[in-house]
Amino acid sequence: MSQMPRQAALPTCPSCAEPLDAGDRFCGACGCDLSAVPPRPDDSPTLMMNSPEPGGTSAAKAPGASGAPGVAGTSGAAGAAPGTPSTAGTPGVPGAPGAFGGSGGAQVSPGTPVHQGTPVHPGAPLPPPAASAAPGAPGAAGAPAAPSAGVRFDRPAEPEEYPLQAPDPRVAAEAAAVAESGTVCVACRAGRVDDDGYCENCGHAQPRERDHMEQESGPVAAVSDRGLRHHRNEDAFGVGHTALPDGTPVSVAIVCDGVSSATRPDDASLAASRVASRSLLTALPQGTHPQQAMHDAIVAASHAVNALAEEPATAREHAPHQNAPACTLVGAVVTAGLLVVGWVGDSRVYWVPADRGAPPARLTEDDSWAAQMVAAGLMNEAEAYADDRAHAITGWLGADAYELEPHTASFKPDRPGVVVVCTDGLWNYAEAAQEMAEALPLDAAVRPLHAARVLVGHALDGGGHDNVTVAVLPFPAPAQGAGSA
Q1: What is the pLDDT of residues 103-116, one digit of tens each?
Q2: Which of 81, 114, 417, 435 is the most buried (most CB within 10 A)?
Q3: Percentage helix, strand, coil, to 5, in the chain?
């Protein structure tokens, strides 16, 4: 902001404040010695933020005063008037900005000669001393070097970090409530997930709990995955281990595949797997024969799926082209020297011996259109499974099933091996028993969970067109006896 120049004031006596005439060495009123130099006030210098001058000075110069002694380094000066003698080295006014129009100091009228010993009024504040005299200026000899131009030393140190604005308490409270509810979006980590499984903040679809499931129970393990094409996982499994009345350990695995064309297929497979595995783990310790226990478990699972047709949720989701909730089921019971399998539908059980030199085998027959064509001799297996109707099932669990016909079979393998229980999401990529054996890791008997993961990965690598579920049960070496596998 521009300011008008102020009228210069005559110097006065520092003792009695009487006006002085030019050239007075003593005050005419009180006789004060005017040659005494007043003490310099204790102050910190403040340098101007102007373009640096040669020699480290930054003060402005008056027209015609370039290089004039006594002017360089004057802080805040507007420049001396033309013809004004230099005051450099003058006692009492060393670099005083007040003598050159600086604020708060006594000023000298233009054209008035200033002599050595001219004092400054004690009541007038003295500004900080100038940065330094220009090189070669009188009185500059021995003066300390001036700081770099454009630097201020009276500013407080700036903090390295500035505090952020306090968050809105309403937003913080909402985020805390979302975190407590456990329904935070996996994508944005801030939004709440609604009942439909989508984030209310970013709209991202949340992974369902059943998209990928793994479980290990004793020597048996299972893995289920949604696959790469389906929007949800309609498979389910149940695994467990217990002991027979004589203390012999026994392992159980149930795998179910929901029928996609039916209502609530995911609920049907979940209900069937839970009921069937629970039935087996309850009956076997009571002494029920494993094959009979498997048959009873399939019947109990069928009743559980039938009950879903009467629930209100089925009525809400049912469409004219849909059937009642339905699923397939396959299971295996492994105990010392005995292997029992049971199934309804097109899920399968494979036997893979530990000695890979021995032949593997498929232990189940599909309830499907393709299997019927092969059994009737109308097509060979390759032709039947190449048909579009190959996977149309002829047997399932559900209220609208034609007739429940649980299939059970028992085997007595004469060597250790591994039992693979899976849905068609896996065997579509390893249909023949030999292909399944090649996909199964060699250490599957000692690392069943790892083996199940590898098999699921094999299906995903092949395309993952369907849900994939597989259970792996190691079969121990029998003490004696022989059978067929």
Answers
A1: 444 444 444 444 44
A2: 417
A3: 20, 20, 60
223-239: pLDDT as tens digits: 999 999 998 999 999 99
Question: 115, 22 in Cβ contact below 8 A?
Answer: yes
Average pLDDT of the segment spanning 374-388: 89
Q: What is the model's pLDDT at position 2?
A: 41
Tokens of 263: 């209502």
Least confident of 149-163, 321-335, 453-467: 149-163
Residue with tokens 């094959």: 291
* Gap between the Cα atoms of 278 and 275, Å rounded: 5
Question: What is residue 201's predicted lDDT score, i.e. its pLDDT?
Answer: 85
Write out the H or E segment, with its range, that includes residue 306: helix 290-308
Could you tell me if 470 and 426 are in contact, meaning their C-beta atoms sit under 8 angstroms apart?
yes
Query: What is residue 179's predicted lDDT score, i.e. its pLDDT?
Result: 56
Q: How many CB atoms lie within 10 A of CB 156?
A: 5
> Scanning the structure block, which residue is given the tokens 């003598």?
99
Residue 351 — φ and ψ, nearest 5°?
-110, 125
User: What single letter denotes the amino acid at residue 275?
Assistant: V
The dihedrals phi and psi of 83, each to the nearest 5 degrees, come to 90, -5
Return the closest-CA partner of residue 100 out of 24, 28, 220, 6. 6
How far is it, in rounded angstroms, from Cα 436 to Cα 353?
12
Q: What are phi and psi of 95, to 5 degrees?
A: 60, 25
* Token digits of residue 235: 């498979």
Give the CA distances from residue 228 to residues 220, 348, 461, in Å, rounded to whole numbers and listed in that order: 26, 21, 10
For residue 17, give every residue at least 6 positions away whose Cβ sits within 8 Å of its Cβ, in sequence order, or none.
Answer: 121, 123
Q: For residue 233, how far is the Cα from the chain centroid?
A: 25
How far apart are alpha carbons 300 and 406 in whole angstroms?
A: 11
pLDDT tens track for 26-43: 777 777 777 765 555 555
What's the CA gap between 374 and 377, in Å, rounded? 5
Q: Which of 234, 190, 10, 252 is nearest to 109 (CA)?
A: 10
CA dist 395 and 44 (Å) reads: 98
For residue 270, what are its two tokens? 């979940």
Under DSSP, is residue 69 helix (H, G, I), strand (E, B) or coil?
coil
